[in-house]
Specification:
The structure is a homodimer of 226-residue chains. Chain A is an alpha+beta fold and 226 residues long. Chain A has eight helices and four strands, in the order βαβαββαααααα.
Amino acid sequence: MASLIHFSLDPFCRRVRLALGEYGSSADLIEEFPWDPSHDICALNPAGTLPIYVATSAAVICGVDAVNEYLEETTAGAKLLPGSAEARAEARRLVSWFDDKFYGEVSGPLLTEKITRRFLTSAQGGGGPEMHRIRLATARIKPHLDYISQLADKGGWLAGEALSLADLAAAAHLSAIDYLGDIPWADYPLVKSWYQRLKSRPSFRPLLSDAVRGLPPSPHYANLDF
Amino acid sequence: MASLIHFSLDPFCRRVRLALGEYGSSADLIEEFPWDPSHDICALNPAGTLPIYVATSAAVICGVDAVNEYLEETTAGAKLLPGSAEARAEARRLVSWFDDKFYGEVSGPLLTEKITRRFLTSAQGGGGPEMHRIRLATARIKPHLDYISQLADKGGWLAGEALSLADLAAAAHLSAIDYLGDIPWADYPLVKSWYQRLKSRPSFRPLLSDAVRGLPPSPHYANLDF
């Protein structure tokens, strides 16, 4: 069986888990704390980063884009990228919006300050969260939610008529910070309705039972009606 | 004719230019300073980032990965990604090594401190370079050059027998900081020999005549024998 080495609240690993669920594929999940892995993940991925996907053929695929493109290329019936080159480019543009821009401005700082720093020693940069970084990231979420509203307002999915990697990337980042209770859902009904459609899909269910030691999820995290 | 909106020393834009050269495709180059674009690039790419490729069909493709995958999918005879899914995953892993890890640790800080900050107002964070960031980035280049040596030692290209996007990504980042004179070539003969093979390809030539106003390239930048 294939396996996926991941950290449950890492948005990049979450995107792969969502994709596997959408494809109806399964993989043994092996959880690692990226800041203190119990196995030598560098032996599999010299960059030392997650996700790492080990296919049933024993091929080792490293990094979210390589894994998602690999799964799309090798899974029978896969279609998380649209049919035309232009539409695929639009889905990839939005994936990069979330993985680069949203992660850089919002989910990266929030996850680092609220989770990673709890687990690091002070020599590693651990300790209490830097509140000014949290305030800045929390303020910067709003233009992103406006942008998702605009994309979701067309009635389909973020990159067009069909569910795509763009939706999974967005949901991966939003769900990770929703665990922390950092999304003002009530102010963004279009985003909430799009997210509700995703959250009720079977692929989403495993993510809703995730829990990080010592840091329970926000009360509404697992509720489909939030 | 297609056009490419780019900044000459941006490694991501450089990768697209190298790919166009390898495909034998041409595009009108429109240079913009990412920190102060003269046109409304946000109207084309809401993220406001470069590169932006406008195809002859007028399709607008934004972001380096979307552009490179689009070109690979739509250019007759394109083969900057290898034939098997596993080999493509290896090329994409290495692209991410350079675009995420190398850029985060080395080329991003060096280009920001030595170039971008010269052009920003003090309110935008401009001014003299932060020397501790330059020292840190300069120290962190060494393990990367060791890793490239190891990959190049197999005699082929970085991701295998054939030239791929992995080589272009690596060369895009290295060439941008070579402009600044920041690579200790003499200590890394295997990297130098691999880079020399790339640098002598016709696709590389346009990059060697780039010049940023007020900041001439390092003396050896354009020399094939450096």
